[in-house]
Amino acid sequence: MPTPDVEYICSDCGAKNDIKPSEPIRCKDCGHRIMYKKQDADESTSESTDPAASEGSEG
Ligand SMILES: [Zn+2]
């Protein structure tokens, strides 16, 4: 694969899009233009306990 498609995550709906470097960045689900590259690195990195954010997650 000379031009591997890059995984992009839509900033609007959060859908995953496999977009090639030559193709324009656009969500195929909702058509949003703002997308960010999927970061597969630092996946298992444990989050450090921050004393400031001691509030439990509601939900
Ligand atoms: Zn979208």
UniProtKB/TrEMBL annotation:
Source species: Mycena metata
Keywords: Metal-binding, Nucleus, Zinc
Spans annotated as Disordered: 38-59
Cellular localization per UniProt: Nucleus
Xref: Gene3D superfamilies: RNA polymerase ii, chain L
Protein name from the UniProt record: DNA directed RNA polymerase
Entries under SUPFAM superfamilies matching the protein: RNA polymerase subunits
Family of the protein in this entry: Belongs to the archaeal Rpo12/eukaryotic RPC10 RNA polymerase subunit family.
Top-rank lineage group of the source organism: Eukaryota
Pfam families the UniProt entry points to: Zn_ribbon_RPAB4 (PF03604)
SMART domains linked: RPOLCX
Entry's Gene Ontology BP terms: DNA-templated transcription
UniProt GO cellular component terms: RNA polymerase I complex; RNA polymerase II, core complex; RNA polymerase III complex
Regions that span the bilayer: none
InterPro entries in the record: RNAP_P/RPABC4, RPABC4, RPABC4/Spt4
Molecular-function annotations in GO: DNA binding; DNA-directed RNA polymerase activity; zinc ion binding
